[in-house]
Design goal:
Blueprint (H helix, E strand, L loop, with lengths): L7 H12 L4 H8 L3 H9 L6 H10 L4 H4 L19 H11 L3 H16 L2
Helix pairs in contact: 2-3, 2-4
Amino acid sequence: MRSFSNTIVPERLKSARERINLTKAEAARKTGLTAASYVRYESGDRCPSPQVILSIAEGLETSVSFLLGETDDFSQDVISIHKTDNPVLFELVQHAQNSDSSTLQRLLTYYQRLVNDK
């Protein structure tokens, strides 16, 4: 991962936070940071490490590439599913990870039918 700009990252943090209507304190909680640390990153006083930028991207529902200014696409590129928070979805994803391509294609087809029938 390349080094982070002291202007791009703070601007992108603010943009990502505002896009999902969070205060700085709420963003800090969602990203697992203290409020003081989050504010320092967003103000440009501190530069986040690669591990912190990944955590922030996940918490703010965006991608590392967006936060680094490599893309203008807000879309997430990583989603975490915790077994304790959503055991059914966790089990489904765990099963899918261990499935062959034929099974994955059937799961995807079934999912698409469910979505289109709404």
